[in-house]
Amino acid sequence: PQRAFGDLPTLPVEERTQQLQAPLARASLVTVVVDGKSLWTSVTDVNISDPSRMGPSAWRVEATLTLQPFWREAATLTSPVMSPGSVVFAQWAGSTGDVQDGVLRVRGPLTRCSITGRGGVSFERALTAAQYVYVDVASFRAWYSTSATAWTPTGTAVLLDYPAAGPLVLEPSAAGIALSFTGDGFVTTGTAAETTGVTLRGGRYWL
Length: 207
What we know:
By secondary structure, the protein is mainly beta. It has one helix spanning 13-25, and strands at residues 29-34, 37-48, 52-55, 58-60, 63-67, 71-78, 85-89, 103-107, 110-117, 119-127, 132-136, 141-145, 156-158, 177-184, 197-206. Strands 1, 2, 5, 6, 8, 11, 12, 13 and 15 form a 9-stranded antiparallel beta sheet that branches. Strands 7-14-9-10 form a 4-stranded antiparallel beta sheet, with no helix packed on it. The protein starts with 12 loop residues before the first helix and ends with a strand.
């Protein structure tokens, strides 16, 4: 990146240097547009060069940005409620990056739940049809709520476990994110509000 201060010829070199470096040092996100689609990723580190004089009143600073490898689409998606068994979250079909901000909302009735795919996550807690456990997959934490919209951590923490294959990773394929949703105490007949289900919320990511 280059910024010229031809209109500030009287500033001392130190102040010019600070004005050149400050916007780069504060960089936290990078946004690109690919095929008309806006994608963003986080900046993890910034390495800024010493300024070099380009002319009597122009200076140049170069910055190297280290970025997260996954680029996120702007929209946050929420899947339909999926019944127990083999489930495919088709809204993530075709994306190439693991979902970095995915939250699973598990609705009772149930007494034990296991969700597996690439790795897995499980918990034991008795839930009625009006109760939920939310699982933040990336941070491997969960919380209990009676609200259907408690997507951010709140309420009572729930202890999680994972299998020998490791913690769950939300890895998409051409068809979507395929998971197995099993457990005990499930109810699969009745109205939609009375049956056990799982929902996924998060962004689509690209490598």
